[in-house]
# Entry
Amino acid sequence: MHKTKETSMKAIYQICRALAAIILLQTLYFKFSGAPESVYIFTKVGAEPVGRIGSGIVELIAAVLLFVPRFNWLGAGLAAGVMLGAIGSHLTVLGIEVMGDGGLLFSLACVVFVCAMFILWVRKSELPVIGRMFEPRRA
# Structure
């Protein structure tokens, strides 16, 4: 790989890791404190309080794993899964805008999802079971 391209990919990778982890950690306060927006969202999808607390715990684990180089792929996988659920809830039950937020929560979920998918793509050879499919073929 060209040196400049490799350096750019590493920078994007680090930015995605940090951005996803920061967003996940920042939203935990609202989930764990029972903020009105979080309670409204999880009540509307029929998962209050277990879904709110449960998703918060999974997001906390994902964020921590995004800071552990050996397990970045696992943190990204957890984050992508939770965000896929959040995006699906916005598109089917909640709507893009929730309680006048201008679509902020939906946008943050999309950012975390894209970052997580990029991390998974970069670390694809480390993924259990399917990682071998991405290893270079030997002649």
